[in-house]
Every structure is written in C-alpha cells, then in structure tokens.
C-alpha cells in the first residue's frame, strides 16, 4: 500500500561564513562561543542532494555518503539527528488515530539515507553545512513532520554547527543564544538573496584533499589553548556581527569586504595561536590573499584615483578560497586571477559561479 514506502529528496546549498563560527561553549549540544554570519550560495552550484526512504520492511537504518556506505553508529551526530526527529514523530503519533491491525508506526520504520555532494567533501568547502541541513529537512519530510525552518535549524545544528545556517537562503545569522538548552541558538534570516543580487561568489578550488584537522577537534584545542581567542569571542566577533549586519542591510561592499577579509584572517590567526598550531591555508591560499589586496589597491589609469575595495577573500577550514565580488567587477577580477595563477595551480578546477545566491527550497 501507499503507506509502506515513504521517500523524499532534498537539495540543500552550502553557506560560507563572513563572520566565522569557531569554538563551542557546549560540545554535545553544539552551542557556539560567538554568533556568526554567512551567505548561502546558490543551490544550483555547491550542494548536497539527499534521498531518504522509509520502509516498514527495512531491518536497519543505513547511510551512504557519495555512494559509499558508512556505519551510522560511528557517527554520533548523525545518530542524534535521527533520534531527535524520530522522537518528534513519536510525539506526533500520540495525536494521530489508531493504526490498522499489525501496522507499524512510521517512527519505527527504518530509514535508508543516501547523501551526495557535488563538490569535494570535507575539504573546507562547507560540505557539512549543506549535508546536515539536507539530512534534517529530508528526514523530517519522510516522517511527515511540520517543522519550521527555525526548528529544523536547531536540529541541523546538532549535526554540524554551520548547518543551522543553510536552512535559509541569502544572508543569515546564527545567534549564539544564552539558554544552556540551546533553544535560542539557531539561524535567523538577515536578508533574502534578492536583497543584494549584485553580490557574487567565486570559488577557487585550491585543493580537494580532506582537511588535516577536523573542525570539531580544531575548535576544541583552540578554546583550550589560544590566548587570542578570548579577545575574538568577547570583543571582536560581537562588534563585527553588528557591523556586518549593517553592511549587508546597506549593501555597503567596502565594509562587507573589509570585515569578511579581517574575520577570515583572524580565524586563521587564532588557528595559528592554537597549540599545537592548526594550518589550513597553504602557499596558494596566501598567494590569493596577496593578489586580492593588490587588486584592491589599483588606481584608475585615467584619473589616478584609487578604485577601492572591489574583492574580498575568505577561507574556512581548508585551503580553498571564496571570493566575494560585485557583478560589474567579476570579469576583471577573473582575468586578473587567471593572469597570475596558471590554471594548473588551481587544482582541480577554478570554478566561476555567475549567480551564486539562491533561494533555499526544501
Ligand atoms: O560546522 P563545522 O563544525 O564544520 O564548522 C565550520 C567552521 C568554519 O567553516 C571554519 C566557519 C563557519 O562559520 O562556517
């Protein structure tokens, strides 16, 4: 019958932080030390596609990542997301009518989950952000739960902190919250992607190798050892959250770019200040940083006037760069980068996304 198999497929975009999340105040609930702000990229480009199938005849929950089966019990985070959503389903079943003779409640059906990233996984390209967002949304659909984006955001957060921000398109803030339960630690929309359609993101894939230090262990060592970290958490990040929100609302590219670059740099400085230090940038990443600053210091050849800040780099837990640039400067920037970096340096490909911002559709 129709009730014997339930299936849903969800595609979720990655998000790239411009004020970074780095550090947890609660490791189990994944509560951050500071708020963060991100841009959700267009889901036509970097995304995770997840299909979940529930069947009363399945005997086990199973999970495939990029076609390879993984053991769910080896992933406490995946288990948490699954257990949380099933518990919500169980609550809902109390309000539903009685089942037919011999019928199993949906909360007891096993799930087969297949998740695929269309880009390198765990290479500092925010694969966990889209991955856990897709997982939470997809399972909640199959279990027929009517959860709000805010509720889904909190569940995705238990998978990977940054995933809570992929529940919204456009410009998003993950509010750190104060409640020890984490009830107020979720993402909120600052503005939809349509607010600033001129803003584009360029992804420079420098390396597709898996990052050397997973973000969870890296953050935990930072919180324990970095002496710069308290300054970042208590003073710098809160100030930048306010400034960045204003820059986005005012579509002030100069401020947006300056804060994004400084915040990326401070995140990597805090990584270097961690003991033992964590290195995510490589020589190509540093070359890109230098190049963007050189691009930004150009003058108009006719008037000699500075052209101003026209590009901003940001790097997560990996060597790959995301460059923010306004539409009318994309062509010039791409040519500038291409003339300094032979294509072979940017492995495997340098990808240009002409229209990075997309509306999240579940
Ligand atoms: O969600 P996680 O645990 O993969 O952490 C992501 C941390 C950064 O990508 C470096 C910064 C951020 O805010 O996304």
From TrEMBL:
Domain Mvd1 C-terminal: 201-362
GO biological process, one term: isopentenyl diphosphate biosynthetic process, mevalonate pathway
Keywords assigned: ATP-binding, Lipid biosynthesis, Lipid metabolism, Lyase, Nucleotide-binding, Steroid biosynthesis, Steroid metabolism, Sterol biosynthesis, Sterol metabolism
UniProt domain Diphosphomevalonate decarboxylase-like N-terminal: residue ranges: 13-187
EC number: 4.1.1.33
Catalytic activity: (R)-5-diphosphomevalonate + ATP = isopentenyl diphosphate + ADP + phosphate + CO2
Source superkingdom: Eukaryota
Pathway(s) where this gene product acts: Isoprenoid biosynthesis; isopentenyl diphosphate biosynthesis via mevalonate pathway; isopentenyl diphosphate from (R)-mevalonate: step 3/3
A GO molecular function held by the record: ATP binding
UniProt KW Nucleotidyltransferase keyword: no
UniProt KW Metal-binding keyword: no
A GO term from the CC aspect: cytosol
Family: Belongs to the diphosphomevalonate decarboxylase family.
Protein name per Swiss-Prot or TrEMBL: Diphosphomevalonate decarboxylase
UniProt organism field: Zancudomyces culisetae (Gut fungus)
């Amino acid at each position: 019958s129709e009730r014997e198999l339930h299936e849903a497929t969800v595609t979720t975009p990655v998000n790239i932080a411009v004020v970074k999340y780095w550090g947890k105040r609660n490791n189990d609930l994944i509560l951050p030390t500071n708020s963060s702000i991100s841009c959700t990229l267009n889901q036509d480009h970097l995304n995770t596609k997840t299909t979940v199938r529930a069947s009363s005849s399945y005997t086990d929950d199973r999970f495939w990542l990029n076609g390879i089966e993984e053991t769910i019990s080896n992933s406490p985070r995946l288990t948490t997301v699954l257990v949380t959503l099933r518990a919500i389903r169980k609550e809902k079943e109390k309000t539903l009518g009685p089942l037919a003779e011999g019928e199993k409640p949906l909360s007891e059906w096993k799930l087969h989950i297949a998740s695929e990233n269309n880009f390198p996984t765990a290479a500092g390209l925010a694969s966990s952000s889209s991955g856990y967002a897709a997982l939470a949304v997809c399972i909640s659909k199959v279990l027929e739960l009517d959860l709000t984006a805010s509720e889904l955001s909190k569940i995705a957060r238990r998978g990977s902190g940054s995933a809570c921000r992929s529940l919204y398109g456009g410009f998003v803030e993950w509010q750190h919250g104060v409640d020890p339960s984490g009830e107020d630690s979720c993402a909120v929309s600052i503005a939809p992607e349509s607010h600033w359609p001129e803003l584009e993101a360029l992804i420079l894939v420098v390396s597709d190798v898996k990052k050397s230090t997973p973000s969870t262990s890296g953050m935990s060592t930072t919180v324990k050892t970095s002496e710069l970290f308290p300054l970042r958490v208590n003073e710098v990040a809160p100030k930048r959250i306010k400034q960045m929100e204003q820059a986005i609302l005012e579509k002030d590219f100069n401020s947006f770019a300056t804060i994004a670059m400084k915040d990326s740099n401070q995140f990597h400085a805090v990584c270097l200040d961690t003991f033992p230090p964590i290195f995510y940038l490589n020589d190509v990443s540093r070359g890109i940083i230098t190049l963007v600053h050189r691009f930004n210091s150009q003058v108009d050849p006719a008037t000699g006037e500075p052209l101003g800040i026209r590009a901003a780099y940001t790097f997560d837990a990996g060597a790959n760069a995301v460059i923010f640039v306004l539409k009318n400067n994309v062509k010039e920037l791409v040519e500038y980068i291409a003339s300094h970096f032979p294509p072979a340096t940017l492995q495997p490909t340098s990808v240009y996304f002409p229209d990075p911002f997309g509306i999240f559709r579940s």
